[in-house]
Specification:
Blueprint: E1 2-6, H1 18-26, E2 31-38, E3 44-46, H2 67-72, H3 78-85, E4 90-95, H4 101-114, E5 122-126, H5 129-138, E6 143-148, H6 152-162, E7 166-169, H7 176-184, E8 188-191, H8 197-205, E9 210-213
Parallel strand pairs: 1-2, 1-9, 2-4, 4-5, 5-6, 6-7, 7-8, 8-9
Antiparallel strand pairs: 2-3
Helix pairs in contact: 1-3
The chain binds SN-glycerol-3-phosphate and calcium ion.
Calcium ion binds next to strand 2.
């Protein structure tokens, strides 16, 4: 079962920062999950929200700042994170807006052909089905995770349609019946965001394939 650090190791260090990914590596994760948006000059930036308000000292939309301005606020580019990780774990890139998808695909292609990363070291996940359809059409070698926050059934039907690798559901949606259904359709289950000991015992009892946690050492 994969141990996946949510936004790095969000429970210990500020989310989606290089320090948070360093902490996740220290905690021996199999993978890190992170979120991406585009800067005004088209760089892929690692940040969860569409604005910088919650996680930096500035206010405004990520898409209104240049990459160099965002870097000064402590927000790394996806390339900086890849360089830092240096193939020490798998990376689950959650695309927050479909417009970032072509750039993310180009970047993965570049890192596979020029930097010795393997396709199986990347996963792309999203709640945005337009983004995931694009990934499936453009590069079938990249593992796709269909994020589900409300309906496992709808996510499963879509995963079959786009030949996804996994369903990544909110853990409270899971039960033994739908876990069996997902597995019998050939998909892995990477569930989020599981933090408390009781919730970890619950999802582990269902035999999922990976757990995404702010505290990856608890998994
Ligand atoms: O990838 C799972 C999880 O990160 C999705 O929710 O809001 O934390 O990005 P959120
Ligand atoms: Ca996320």
């Amino acid at each position: 079962m994969l141990k996946i650090g949510h936004r790095g190791a969000k429970g210990y260090v500020a989310e989606n920062t290089l320090a948070s990914f360093a902490k996740a590596i220290e905690l021996k994760v199999d993978a890190v999950e992170l979120d991406v948006h585009l800067s005004s000059d088209g760089e892929i930036m690692v940040i969860h929200d569409a604005t910088v308000n919650r996680t930096t000292t500035e206010t405004g939309f990520v898409s209104d700042f240049s990459a160099s301005e965002l870097k000064k606020l402590g927000i790394p580019t996806l390339e900086q994170v890849l360089l830092f990780l240096n193939r020490r774990c798998v990376i689950n890139i959650e695309i927050k807006e479909a417009t970032a998808t072509p750039k993310v695909l180009q970047l993965i292609e570049k890192w596979v052909t020029e930097q010795h990363w393997k396709y199986n070291q990347f996963q792309i996940s999203s709640f945005n089905w337009e983004a995931l359809s694009m990934v499936s059409k453009i590069n079938s070698k990249i593992a796709i995770g269909v994020l589900a926050e409300a309906s496992i059934e709808k996510a499963l039907a879509f995963a079959i349609q786009i030949k996804a690798h996994s369903i990544n559901p909110y853990f409270k949606l899971l039960n033994s019946e739908n876990v069996n259904l997902i597995h019998s359709n050939g998909f892995k289950i990477y569930t989020w965001t599981v933090n408390t000991p009781e919730d970890l015992i619950f999802v582990k009892s269902l035999i999922v394939d990976g757990i995404i946690s702010d505290f990856p050492d608890r998994i």
